[in-house]
Amino acid sequence: MNTMQRLFALVAVLVLAGCATSQRTTFPPPQTPAPPQSPAPERPASKPGDQVGTPAPKTMPARTAQEASSPAVLSLMGRADTLARNGNMDMSAATLERALDLEPRNPFIYQRLASVKLAQGQTGQAEAMARKSNSVAGNNPFVRADNWQLIAEARRTGGDRSGADEAVGRASDYRSASQQLMR
After folding, report:
1. pLDDT in tens, 111-144
2. According to the UniProt record, where is the region Disordered (predicted)?
């Protein structure tokens, strides 16, 4: 890639990143102060086992990159997918690494990079990227299930059948957990 193409790519990423974070700040109109109220009666402190009120709703972890990524990162991931489909794995990996510069704690980027590394035959790197994705995914069973499936494939390709079987079991456990969340 020549210098002009790199410069153009950098400008495009910066423009997309600017679009993703651009917000207008509006200030509320000034309000007149409210008259002082008598203090609310004190409630007894709740203990960890107490059930006060309704339970907090379960928050669903992100299941897709679209739910967890900025528009700039989604654009880069789409470009990386196109490059990978066209067989240009090196450029796909480089594009995903640029996305990591924007969102270094996005597990979906590491997961896609693991897939690219696996397609390149770099099984050790594929497993490392899937593990990194797991480390930033928290308790997200959707991401973890797919990562363990990638780890299983990397191990199988590398000749580690027992390690692959263990990873398939872990993927299955996380798939069960994700199905529980969907109920």
Report:
1. 999 999 999 999 999 999 999 999 999 999 999 9
2. 23-72, 154-183
| Tally of CB atoms within 10 A around 152 | 23
- Rounded to 10 deg, the angle between the 161-182 and 141-157 helix axes is 160
**Distance (Å, rounded) from C-alpha 163 to C-alpha 4?**
46
Cβ 68 vs Cβ 136: under 8 Å: no
- Quick check: 153 and 121 in contact, CB under 8 A? no
Taking CA atoms, 172 is separated from 46, 134, 135, in Å, by 38, 15, 18
> Which residues of the chain are modeled with pLDDT < 50?
3-4, 7-30, 41, 43-50, 56
Q: Shortest CA distance to 176 belongs to which of 141, 136, 138?
A: 141
**Total Cβ atoms within 10 A of residue 154:** 26
Distance CA 146, CA 148 (A): 5
Residue 166 in tokens: 């263990």
Question: Which amino acid would we find at residue 174?
Answer: Y
The DSSP secondary structure of 106-137, one letter per residue, reads -HHHHHHHHHHHHHTT-HHHHHHHHHHHHHHH
Residues 6+ apart with CB under 8 A from 161: 155
